Amino acid sequence: xxxxxxxxxxxxxxxxxxxxxxxxxxxxxxxxxxxxxxxxxxxxxxxxxxxxxxxxxxxxxxxxxxxxxxxxxxxxxxxxxxxxxxxxxxxxxxxxxxxxxxxxxxxxxxxxxxxxxxxxxxxxxxxxxxxxxxxxxxx
Length: 139
Fold this sequence. Notes:
Order of helices and strands: HHHHHHH
Strand content: under 5%
Shape: globular
Structural class: mainly alpha
Radius of gyration: 17 Å
């Protein structure tokens, strides 16, 4: 990456770097701030599941169980992407028997924070953005 001097100061430089890396400039007070599924996945999921959802993230080998291949969720479900089950697993607050578990963070609780104003609607939007993004990774 090359250095760029920006007339707007360091904050502007971070926004420009974020845009260059595929992010988007959003107003932090927006009700949809931080709900980009791609960004949320890369930030919170890719370290274990890998950038393409293959279960090959940089932390995968250090876990007790290898993370599942999220790019094959539809294939393992008769060709239909199980969005509702995926949402429940990502949320983690209402677990499905045999899915998810203590090895995966409870993102519903983690996303209910000062950034989302502890608002369940914003938490659901963030979770849904991840669910929608995972659908794009299906093979």
